[in-house]
TrEMBL record, chain A:
Belongs to the sigma-70 factor family. ECF subfamily. Residues 248-320 form the DUF6596 domain. Residues 215-248 are annotated as: Disordered. InterPro entries: DUF6596, RNA_pol_sigma-70_dom, RNA_pol_sigma70_r2, RNA_pol_sigma70_r4_t2, RNA_pol_sigma_r2, RNA_pol_sigma_r3/r4-like, TPR-like_helical_dom_sf, WH-like_DNA-bd_sf. Residues 235-244 have a biased composition (Pro residues). This is Sigma-70 family RNA polymerase sigma factor. Residues 220-234 have a biased composition (Low complexity). Residues 21-84 form the RNA polymerase sigma-70 region domain. It comes from Cryobacterium glucosi. Residues 118-169 form the RNA polymerase sigma factor 70 region 4 type domain. Keywords: Sigma factor, Transcription, Transcription regulation.
UniProtKB/TrEMBL annotation, chain B:
This is Transcription initiation protein. Belongs to the YciI family. Residues 5-112 form the YCII-related domain. Pfam families: YCII.
Amino acid sequence: MTATDAGGTDPAGALAALLVAERRRVLATVIRLTGDLALAEDAVQDAAISALETWRRLGVPPNPRAWLTLAAKRRVIDLLRREGARPNKEREAIILAVQRAPDETPPGIVRDDQLRLIFTCCHPALAQEAQVALSLHVLCGLSVAEVARALLVSEATMAKRLTRARRKIADAGIRYRVPDAGELPGRLGAVATTVFLLFTEGYASRSADAPALVSARPESSVPPGSQAPPGSAALPPPTAPSGPPGASVAEEAIRLGRLLVELMPGEPVLEGLLATMLLQHSRLRARFDGDGDIVLLADQDRSLWDRSRVAEGIELAASAIRGSSIRPERFAVTAAIAACHALAADAATTDWDAIIAWYDVLLALDPSPVVRLNRAAALAESGDPAAALAVVDRIGGLDDYFWFHATRAELLRRLGRHPEAGAAALVARELTGSAAQLRLLDRRHPS
Amino acid sequence: MPSYVALTYTRDVDWTAPEQAAEMQEYRDFGRDAEAVIRGGAALYPTQTATTVRVTGGKGGDVVIGDGPYAETKEALTGFYLLECDSLDEAIRHAAAIPAAWNGVVEVRPTVPTLM
């Protein structure tokens, strides 16, 4: 075989595409065989490096995924024989499992492998921030440096966080398994919460809420499919060729949400999660103007909303609500609220009564101050800012929350109580996390 | 087979007092239900019975004996179980059936396997 056999396929490009599409699947299979996340990660990483070397010499093989899986399995055996820490019996058992595994994994097991991996990364015994970091690194394939940038911590901190999480998985005996029927509802909720946190982290790091942000830019300024400059590294990064690090985190969360719905169809919590993310994300291009300033929902140019995501989100939201029992899933309700907004042609014709009713359902499930604040905002939009202000003034526990004071300032302004509005805006100013939030206050409450 | 300890943290109680009889029965029920995985454990006398032992100045130094726990806390270590479970999930399932889980909190910790 010679390099020309590859039919002109570029090995680096083929590997990058393979890693984007199949890395998680290969990794999930190797983890099942070894029961060891760290070992499997090392083996897949090494296999990717040797893939590039070999494919450059011999051309891209006809079935790159099978090639990579086999290379990773061989690498596991090498790594195991080299490391001394493991008891002999355990080492031999893993080697046997790897050797005996069929070359092609049956589809049902592929599905379970991926679910096992997701449930392991989102195990509630791991700290929430560790779950988010693991999900980005292991499930989405971002490098440690990329995860660190996306979550606004130093690379050293992130490396430590990931190591601690892997150690806990290994030492505490968090098994690589799909929860059984009894555990499933709680564990699904934990997975959904983590994926949604990932989604909001993506929002925070990219857009309005990042601290000390010099220029908050809408996603539209990021050319789709932009990558690291060609030839900048010998090995293509094992990540999706999407926007700059951090910018794609919300997209990664949506991708995970989609995978979950695909793996466990008809689960209202997962449909609601994906719908909520799609509907919120559909407004991304309208959330900031050309100068990077925040545009509030009521003022957004709805023609900028991503219609295909709106349509998909509404359909999923409806399915999540239909599939819900008497006590609906939290994410089904947040999806319903987002769908009400998405269905309206503009702010004025929004069905605020329906939105307030959904907020009442949400409050029954989650009586948190932030939900109360959002319900009050809907009440104000429905034409009753005085009632809304009365509600807001009774909410406790949000003294350090920017949007609490910004909302109060806005309600007071609408009621013509300008000195008080100015005072509330002043408090909000102290709490703002971004230049865009500051400019929003400047526009609404010029001093 | 990995092992775990389940440490029970609850209000400080005297398990030998007659008014604890009903709660002790709950623990006995748990002990019976989880018999297959319990490898040991004990209820502890209240924290006032605790003694701290410290050797100052390194090994071989002076033995300093102290009375009681370090500080008054709302939840005290009142007992423990040694559980032999296949996974953390299984240990969690059993821990959730220990009365301390609703009367306080149960801390599940994996034990380091003895290297023999």
